[in-house]
Amino acid sequence: MTRFIELMLNGISLGSVYALIALGFVIVFKATEVVNFAQGSMLVLGGYVTTRAHDHMPFVPALLVGIAATAITALIIERVLIRNARGADVNALAILTIGIDILLITELTRRFGSDVLTIGDPWGNKLVHLGNLSLPQARLAAITVAVVLLSGFFAAFKYSSWGVAMRAGAEDNEAAALMGIRRGRVTATAWMVAGLLAAVAVVFLTAFPSPGLDTGAREIALRAFPAAILGGLDSTGGAVVGGLAIGLAEAMTAGYSVTFLGGSLADVIPYLVMLVILLVRPSGIFGTRELSRV
Amino acid sequence: MSSALASRLRRVKLGTVCRIILVLILAVLPLYLDNSLLQTGLFSMAAVVGAIGLTILTGAAGQLSLAHAFFLAVGAYSYSYFAGVKDPSGASKAHGLGMPPVLAMILAVATAGVVGLLFSPIAGRLRGIYLGVASLSLVFIGSFIYENARSLTGGFNGRPATEFDLFGFHFGPEHPPLTVLNIAFGRFERLWYLFLALAVLAYIFGVNVLRGRMGRAMQTMRDSEVAAATMGVDIRRTKAGVFALSSMYAGLAGVMVALAFTRVTPDYFILPLSISYLAMVVIGGLGSVGGAALGAVFVTALPTLLSRYSGSLPFVAEPASGGYDAGKISAALFGVAIVFIVIFEPGGLSALGTRITRRFRRNKTEAPATEPKRAMPRSGTVTRTQEDPV
User: Fold this and answer.
1) Which of A211, A277, B160, B222 is deepest in the core (most CB within 10 A)?
2) Residues 6 or more apart from B144 whose CB is under 8 A from it?
3) How far is CA B124 from the centre of its chain?
4) What is the pairing mode between strands A263-264 and A259-260?
5) Is the pLDDT higher at A131 or at B272?
6) What is B156-216 written as a DSSP string?
7) How many Cα atoms occupy the beta-carbon half-sphere of B256 within 13 Å?
């Protein structure tokens, strides 16, 4: 039972990190209809800048620098590239972000070489003991930070004028524009928020017990794709549910070492879960179903 | 009227003549190229076949797929399985059926098609971008299978691919020995002609598919699913069918890669391969078969050519020196090319070519310009029902 609870907590912690990344996908998709394949390299970028900044300053300011760098990069991508391709179809825009991803990751790979960087988070390899449970501090910190960020986001989404503008834009772009909503500002903020979420998520992806940060973190970000998809690409709540589902599934299969063909099933469980869900609901659990009648 | 017809005939002829000349040039090239360039050529021709399959799926039918690497792997592994035999020394655990290689090649392509069809409950139902992300999962699930299903795939070290054999003519190093114009025809030269024939067939087949009934159906579906369904196109069947067709192309490309490598290893069929196929078809111009072929050669040959001539190119850094070496330069170039093409010239190289020839022609004959093909459609309007609770 202790083992089960430990795995649950591990799964929730991993899941909340996935939820942060998946939320980044969803916000960007809602605002600009772009599936952002560059999110993975944005994540690596955030981690890289944070680590480099940490050489000169304490962790928290360094993280802020990392967040700022990622958000500004996202803003530049949105302003310079996505905006100029407005009106292109969803697939073309997705391909555009793949191009951006190739560029970013090539430069980052060159800078990384074969290094594995430690991001310098304050939790190190300390453990927390609760009764006979023991968990890495970083895992609990991940849950706490995710809860704070997610509730902040949902509050903003529901009550702030940005949130209202964003929802209106997602519902009907033209009507929103006619009602005086400044679409450019909404989409720019959406991209920046996605950048922010990526820069925060990378801290917990690379914290103990992970070995550290290298460009492989990009592949971990891709595992958040199933989270966003199975919740429904245009549902913010779905991103959280999807993230937790994927995180729990992964932690459980890894923890109980479920094997298939002799390999650990945890490597592919996010994708398997996604395929099964898509078989039943092609637009994800909470996604908008597009209906058309002929 | 008659002059329009005449100019049309002249145009068709000119294009065909150019293509025939190109094939002839390719046919004499093995007499001049060394082995490393020949090998680059072999990989380029394999990529041409694969890219034609992807441009039919992503360009003509508008279904984004990142699973191409997976279907290449299906082709490569099943060829090696059907044609291979169990290693007598026991170094590899992989089994094989020991079929004749021609049969194995045909079966491998069929297997890739069947696997593509098996994915159709998903491929046929998903809309637009959902398919792109769902197909991503096949690459990762695939990697898991290649490394773990050892009796089929040989695991981490892969398995050897039996050399090709066409009715007694062997495509191995020197059996039977063959010399043409004082050039000894080894494995690479022989495979070159096999690959050239396959690439030309794939090209002709692809052009005809796009021109035919199925191609029209796909393109209508890409532009508007509702309109296509109104015209009697069965959307699910078309989606599943085009997915299977593109998988078969990928399967053939996989067989070709296996033959060129003489080995099938899991580390080749990973996500970057899918992405470079996407780069090929985008650079060539989505939906254009000729463009896909051009893009395939460009994307495949550029890294090797850059590293081959890196000594005389000042901007190419040594590998692993921390600078921009040949691989990184080409990766960055592909990234830039994709970004620029999506923003400025969605038709890619093929649209660029059409534009140039049209300008050339207009200067001479003032021929009326035809409406250019839209390779990347603008998103259509779809009725939505809002169910999102948030």
Assistant:
1) B222
2) A261, A263, A267, A268
3) 22
4) antiparallel
5) B272
6) GG-EE-PPPEETTEE-SSSSS--EETTEE--HHHHHHHHHHHHHHHHHHHHHHHHHSHHHH
7) 29
- Write out chain B residues lying below 8 Å of A279, CB-based: 121-122
Place of tokens 């069809």: B117
B127 touches chain A (CB under 8 A): yes
Average predicted confidence (pLDDT) for chain A: 84
| HSE, side-chain direction, 13 A CA sphere, residue B268 | 20
Answer whether A123 touches B (CB < 8 Å). Answer: no
Tell me whether residues B335 and A109 touch, CB distance under 8 A.
no
CB contact under 8 A, A106 and B337: no
Q: For A127, phi and psi rounded to 5 degrees?
A: -110, 155
Q: How far apart are CA B366 and CA B382, in angstroms?
A: 40
**Residue A134: other Cβ atoms inside 10 A:** 11
Contact B63, B122 (CB under 8 A): no
The full length of chain B comes to 390
- The answer to whether B333 contacts chain A (CB < 8 Å) is no
CA nearest to B294, candidates B359, B353, B206: B353
- The β-bridge relationship of strands B169-170 and B263-264 is unpaired
Chain B positions in Cβ-Cβ contact with residue A233 (cut-off 8 Å): 129-130
ipTM: 0.84
Q: How far is CA B28 from the centre of its chain?
A: 23
Q: Which residues contact A185 (CB under 8 A, 6 or more apart)?
A: A165
Q: How far is CA A249 from CA A246, A254, A271, A273, in A?
A: 5, 8, 11, 8
Is the pLDDT higher at A288 or at A97?
Answer: A97
Rounded Cα distance, A200 and B195, in Å: 49
